[in-house]
């Protein structure tokens, strides 16, 4: 099932709108487990390949232009960035995976750190796994899905840049994603369709997030 096939209750849509219109603050950028903020509130995380449109989506959710900053070179962001809404929810921007113009040792270090975070963060409610609609679910995405499955950590596929494809092309990407999640026990059964540029699916994604609170 995709988000456009499910009708979110109007109250939930409105609660999501209010939540993401509230005060949001950058907390810190973290480079090791010792630097993580206290696990004292619910937490959601956004993960995805480099260039998947993660920063654009986070900025669009909050209606901010520069809240999450994209690096000029894919794969350069090596920090886990924490934001908080009303001091009630952490929103976490994870480093992009799958491509990096950085030494292998550096890439391995922040990849291991990210995976350790995903396995050990007790207050993490859900990971939103961003997939570029134009690429579909790739091998590197399946690798991250396996990490999340082993950690028994709930995650949900969010297809980005949905406006860039014809309906027939998008339908095939959705079908392939449905097949992928059927093989992964920790995956949420509903797939989100979004476009930060066209505001597609953002009210539904906000509603999905507010329900976790």
TrEMBL record:
Organism lineage: Bacteria, Pseudomonadati, Pseudomonadota, Alphaproteobacteria, Hyphomonadales
Keyword RNA-binding listed: no
SUPFAM superfamilies to which the protein is assigned, alphabetical: P-loop containing nucleoside triphosphate hydrolases
GO biological process: division septum assembly
InterPro entries registered for this protein in UniProt: G_ENGB_dom, GTP-bd, GTP-bd_ribosome_bio_YsxC, P-loop_NTPase
Name of this chain's protein: Probable GTP-binding protein EngB
Cofactors that this protein relies on: Mg(2+)
Chain's gene name: engB
GO molecular function, one term: GTP binding
């Amino acid at each position: 099932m995709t988000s456009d096939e499910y009708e979110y209750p109007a109250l939930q849509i409105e609660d999501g709108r209010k939540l993401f219109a509230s005060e949001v603050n950058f907390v810190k950028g973290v480079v090791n487990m010792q630097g993580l903020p206290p696990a004292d509130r619910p937490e959601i995380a956004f993960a995805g390949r480099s260039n998947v449109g993660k920063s654009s989506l986070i900025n669009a959710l909050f209606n901010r232009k520069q809240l999450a900053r994209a690096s000029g070179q894919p794969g350069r962001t090596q920090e886990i960035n924490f934001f908080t809404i009303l001091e009630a929810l952490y929103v976490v921007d994870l480093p992009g995976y799958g491509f990096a113009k950085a030494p292998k040792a550096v890439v391995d270090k922040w990849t291991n750190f990210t995976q350790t975070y995903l396995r050990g963060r007790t207050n993490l409610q859900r990971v939103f796994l961003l997939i570029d609609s134009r690429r579909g679910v790739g091998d590197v995405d399946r690798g991250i899905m396996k990490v999340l499955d082993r950690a028994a950590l709930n995650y949900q596929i969010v297809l980005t840049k949905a406006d860039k494809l014809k309906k027939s092309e998008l339908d095939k990407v959705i079908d392939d994603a449905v097949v992928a999640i059927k093989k992964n026990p920790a995956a949420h059964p509903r797939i989100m369709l979004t476009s930060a540029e066209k505001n597609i699916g953002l009210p539904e994604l906000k509603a999905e997030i507010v329900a976790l609170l």
